[in-house]
Amino acid sequence: MMGARRRCILATLAFLMLMGIAVYFRLWAIHYNLSSDDTQLLRQQFDIANREAMDESAEWRLRYDQEVDRTKKCLQELQVFQESSQKGQDASDINHKLAILQKENAVLLERLETLKRELEEERLKCSS
């Protein structure tokens, strides 16, 4: 009786071990399928994140290019303003020089008139 009982226990133990191994392999297979699905999911998420990063990079590049264009336009306007300001200063300098030259011209015209009068006086002296 003791031998039969021992065999029954060993058979039950062997059966339970086989069932445990079967359950273990089943769980391992499920985990493997989930892992491969996770790998595919991770790959898809990486691709999505990569596309989003590329889009964001393109957006920032566009903003940079727009800012560079705006800066160039501002610099050109500043340069035009500086040139016109310089022309304004040149114009005021020219007006000042013109006023000086007009005064000098008036002085020279007066001097010319006096010289003409002196010349006429000398002619009159010579002819008399």
Short description:
The chain is mainly α and 128 residues long. It contains one helix and no strands.
The structural class is mainly alpha
Count of distinct strands: 0
Uncertain residue ranges: none
Termini, distance in Å? 184 Å
> Main sheet?
none
Question: Average pLDDT, to the nearest integer?
Answer: 86
Radius of gyration: 54 Å
Order of helices and strands: H
What percentage of the residues does DSSP assign to strands (E)?
under 5%
The percent of residues in helical segments reads: over 70%
Q: Count of helices?
A: 1
**Apparent shape:** rod-shaped
**Quaternary arrangement of the chains shown?**
single chain
Keywords: Coiled coil
Coiled coil: 98-125
Give structural notes.
There is one protein chain. With 128 residues, this protein is mainly alpha-helical. Helix content is 98%, strand content 0%. It contains one helix and no strands. It has one helix at 2-127. It is rod-shaped and about 185 Å long.
Offer a few descriptive terms:
128 residues; mainly alpha; 1 helix; rod-shaped; coiled coil
Topology of this protein?
Elements: H1 2-127
